[in-house]
Amino acid sequence: MILQSGFARTIMQARQMVVHGHFLLNGHKHNVPSYFVNAGDVITIKESLKSSELYSGDNSQKSPLWLSSNKANFSVTVTDLPHTEERDVAELPADVLKVIEYYARA
């Protein structure tokens, strides 16, 4: 979510931000990057970090359809969970079936 919403530039940076406790999930501190969010969950940046140079940059990245980003409040709302049939080629430039076939060989 952090990467897709534009708060981080890379997936490794997004994971580190979450592990260091920069974000709140529904108002509570959260530091597990692999947590499964639900529709309606709100992710915000801690108040003390809103003025940080890390988050003051240009985050004009377009969010996916299933996320609603509020750049002014530094928050992201999960409006719906992503569905395979709604994914755009630009969002997911991979053939999911080929990936599953590759890892199923083991």
Main-sheet strand order equals 2-1-3-5-4
**Biggest pleated-sheet summary:** 5 strands, antiparallel
The percent of residues in helical segments reads 10-25%
Q: Note the run of SSEs as H and E.
A: HHEEEEEH
Fourth-tier CATH superfamily name: RNA-binding S4 domain
The CATH topology corresponds to Structural Genomics Hypothetical 15.5 Kd Protein In mrcA-pckA Intergenic Region, Chain A
Using only CA atoms, what is the Rg?
Answer: 15 Å
Highest CATH level, the class: Alpha Beta
What is the straight-line distance between the termini?
30 Å
Number of extended strands: 5
Number of domains: 1
What does this structure look like?
The longest helix is centred in the N-terminal third of the chain and has 9 residues, at 11-19. The chain contains 3 helices and 5 strands. A 5-stranded antiparallel beta sheet has the order 2-1-3-5-4. The chain has 106 residues and is α+β, with helices and mostly antiparallel strands. It is globular. It has helices spanning 2-5, 11-19, 96-104; strands at 23-25, 28-29, 42-45, 67-70, 75-78.
